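Sample log: Chitin-binding type-1 domain-containing protein.
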Amino acid sequence: MSSFGTCTTGAGSVSTDGSCGKNGKTCKGSTFGDCCSANGFCGKSSDHCGTGCQGSFGTCNGAADSLSKDGACGSRNGKTCVGAGFGTCCSSTGYCGSTGSHCGQGCQTGFSSGCFTRNIPTNDGTCVPWLLRDNERSLRIWLSAEFWKM
């Protein structure tokens, strides 16, 4: 699965139901949009064409330009950590990494692929649900004492 670049042909025929990727269908030329999202759906929004876009099954934005070249990321410069080689998470302070400090509270989901949460906990003492990723490493970090000392 390619996350970056543009491919002109997919592995199979053009999708007629909006699904793509694993089923071998391509979005290029479909009525739903030319981009195949990370979740396997055709479309034309930034969710479909940006980070995680499956270039083998459609057209993706030129994401190579959005890769962090120095480990800085997120809303501060618009760069992503995904595929940049500095880790999978963009911290609240705008740096790539894979520690609990990067992937935990404040992780910028639009520039990351490994955040522990989609909802950022508030600073007023209220709690929001933690949505963990489906991998054992994330769970170990999340439960570790180091994570809670942030």
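Observation: The mean pLDDT is 73.
Observation: The chain has four helices and four strands.
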